[in-house]
Fold this protein.
Amino acid sequence: MDPVLLEEQLHSRIPLSRQLGARVAEAGMDLVRLTAPLELNLNHRDTAFGGSLSSLAILAAWAWLYLASSSEGFHGRIVIQHGAMDYIAPVAGDFEAVCRRPGTAEWNEFRETLKRRKRARIELRAAIHSGGRVAATFAGRYVALDG
Amino acid sequence: MDPVLLEEQLHSRIPLSRQLGARVAEAGMDLVRLTAPLELNLNHRDTAFGGSLSSLAILAAWAWLYLASSSEGFHGRIVIQHGAMDYIAPVAGDFEAVCRRPGTAEWNEFRETLKRRKRARIELRAAIHSGGRVAATFAGRYVALDG
């Protein structure tokens, strides 16, 4: 998908994504990569606020599933059920969230369950990178519901 | 603490809290209660964005620990290490995050460890309420570091 188009969708449909300064750097079936500037996301220690890191990771995983399931002809709802974030290191600069496609077996099971039951869950992972290292990791459980 | 003062601190030190529309409704040793309007936090389904719920919960727990540890004379860093959020129901209106003081034994252990080792961890819980029900629950592990 055109990153510009996805970015417009994120900004118009999830206004906080604009406040985070979220930009879409890559948007494809292999991965979604979103970037954000430190400046809009500072905390009391002049590093990135944990809620901003969490929000960007949630958006990256949601966007990956949105693109991947759209390409399968799915146009229902995608909702987060659970999200867990490990904050590994302070983020002292601009940062990005990368969500990569899950394993083929997990993805195939998700697709088949969604077709059969009109509802399926999948666990997605994303990482926050900043300054050349992984600063946080995210695991989110999303559910897709047809109709 | 004066809720207005805490709110000013949040807005000036963590600018995203202002973008979320976070307001401090109650700020004390028993609980911190933050509110936010749906309007600034919409997602693609016209309910609240998961990242906004997560951010408000992270702020509420951080603010509680900040107030409680300040009252003990602690003025070091407070950092989130891990956060997990269960999204139970869609949030279709304004919402609030409530963090209550943990159990006395946990709090005492945290205080004593912090005094002895200049570093201590504590698990805090917060709940997102909207429309009279609990819409999400949060558990966060925070570390306080002296100096």
Notes: The first helix of chain A runs from residue 3 to 13. The mean pLDDT of chain A is 96.
